[in-house]
Design a protein that fits this description.
Structural class: mainly alpha
Number of strands: 2
Number of domains: 2
Order of helices and strands: HHHHEE
Strand order of the largest sheet: 1-2
Length: 89
């Protein structure tokens, strides 16, 4: 009985790892329907291990500490309107 539970947990390992992802339903379906093949299990595992979206970092020099609230473009601290989209900073 214990070995059955361990094998079930191993089979659904990609779904367990990816439970907090945006694409959890897709990961679970690939794992459930194609996990019995080694290729389906590996695809679900890699999908679960990948990050949701790439992390982006914005560089803000000392004189450009403000950003546009609409488009996120850096703005000089003395301007009142964004040069890219025209929104008020």
């Amino acid at each position: 009985m214990v070995s059955f539970l361990l094998l079930t947990a191993l089979y659904f390992l990609p779904s367990i790892i990816g439970r907090e992802k945006r694409d959890f339903a897709g990961i679970f379906l690939v794992n459930l329907l194609l996990g019995w093949t080694l290729v389906g299990w590996v695809v679900a595992f890699l999908w679960a291990c990948c990050s949701d979206r790439p992390a982006s970092a914005q560089y803000a020099p000392a004189g450009m500490a403000r950003f546009c609230s609409r488009c996120g473009t850096p703005a000089v601290s003395v301007v009142q309107y964004c040069g890219a989209c025209g929104a008020r900073v």
